[in-house]
Amino acid sequence: MNTVPPPRRVLVLTHTGDVGGAETALLRLIGALDAGRFAVQVTTLEDGDLVQRLNDGGVLVSMLDAGRLVRVTRDRTIASPFAVLRNAGDTLRTARRLRAHVRAEKPDLIVANSLKAAVLLAFTAPGTRTPWVWHLHDRLASDYLPAPVAAAMRMLARVGPRRVVANSRATAQTLGRSGRGRTTVAYPGVDASAFHREVSDGRDGPVGIVGRVSRTKGQAEFLDAAEIVARSLPDVRFRIVGAALFEDRDDEEALRRRTAESELLASRVEWAGWSSDVPGELRRLGLFVHASPTPEPFGQIVVEAMLSGVPVVATDAGGVPEILDPASAGGEPIADGVRRTQSGLLVKPGDAQALARAIRWALEHRAESTDAARHAQADAADRFGIERTAAVVEGVWDEVVERARGRRRR
């Protein structure tokens, strides 16, 4: 008589209750996993929208008290020797609580879904004899993290997890020697049907940027480019969708004031605020702009815009070129700092003049932009489906669990 083995028990650890890119990727992944093979529960260090959405999806969630550790940002982590000592104490206390939690739950595998989660598991996992995998959503580079933090995290990747699942080749490359033979790339997948809209030849709508408001996300550069474009194309309208998290609220307020006080921007730029309807926001745009001055690890919003049938302008750094120029073909230079690929335009990051040139070109070459949007939509549906991501991740999880069981049997 054949018996079906029980699903592998997987405990995912993430530090935040907010829903950012890494958490969105996690929610989509859990929804696509084979429930007959993997039983997933999630542990967080704070309450928030993530917990609610996991509960709505029938996922068991538990929360651990991490004290002040939850709200230590990347920059503040090394702000002073006193901060380092204080954070170390919070880390050790939280690790003790996590160790007891893991021993009680007895998972077959633990998954770290953030940098802080990986640090905690480096302290915790050895005492539980439970293998862990790091789902890496951050580039471990000095242009993205403080240099000492990036170096420490690369060392952790070498000695801690059994495997690393990186969200792009660009992210994997920042591991250097630490990732050799231990890293698998699994692009964050998307349900194409949630975003799909037929590409329109006569598409109209504002030029828009969608995402969390932050210095690293490019709203300031977007406004710089909007001012330049407005001088030559006065009828163009711009739309900013998103809101800042607590540590970036002063920056958002400064950008809003700048918009209101600018003769060129005040009547042309709409600040829409946070929206839960990202597909709807993307579908209303005439042109989507990704303007991050800091190289992004991946760029889920770029994929979502492609699936929505919106022409795309995006920064040429980090994981984004893997989305718009997957074969590294180079594309066609069409202006200083701008190159054209089959799926859209790539722009030198942090260069508002180049961004403005790309926006103008896309608006003035409607037929070419529409052709690129059609190609991008089909390509994104083929390469970034959530089913493909789930299959890659399931393979890594299976391998790690089986190897761990083999070691225990010996």
Task: Summarize the structure in words.
- Helix content is 42%, strand content 16%.
- The chain contains 14 helices and 15 strands.
- Strands 10-9-8-11-12-15-14-13 form an 8-stranded mixed sheet, sandwiched between helices. Strands 3-2-1-4-5-6-7 form a 7-stranded parallel sheet.
- The model is unreliable at 74-82 (pLDDT under 50).
- α7 packs across α12 (352-364).
- It is α/β, with parallel strands linked by helices.
Question: Secondary-structure blueprint of this entry?
Answer:
Blueprint: E1 8-14, H1 21-32, E2 38-44, H2 49-56, E3 60-63, H3 81-105, E4 109-112, H4 115-124, E5 132-136, H5 147-159, E6 163-166, H6 169-173, E7 183-185, E8 207-210, H7 219-232, E9 238-241, H8 249-261, E10 269-273, H9 278-283, E11 287-289, H10 300-307, E12 312-315, H11 320-324, E13 332-335, E14 338-340, E15 345-347, H12 352-364, H13 366-383, H14 386-409
Parallel strand pairs: 1-2, 1-4, 2-3, 4-5, 5-6, 6-7, 8-9, 8-11, 9-10, 11-12, 12-15
Antiparallel strand pairs: 13-14, 14-15
Helix pairs in contact: 1-14, 3-4, 7-12, 10-13
Short description:
The chain has helices spanning 21-32, 49-56, 81-105, 115-124, 147-159, 169-173, 219-232, 249-261, 278-283, 300-307, 320-324, 352-364, 366-383, 386-409, and strands at 8-14, 38-44, 60-63, 109-112, 132-136, 163-166, 183-185, 207-210, 238-241, 269-273, 287-289, 312-315, 332-335, 338-340, 345-347. The protein has 410 residues and is an alpha/beta fold.
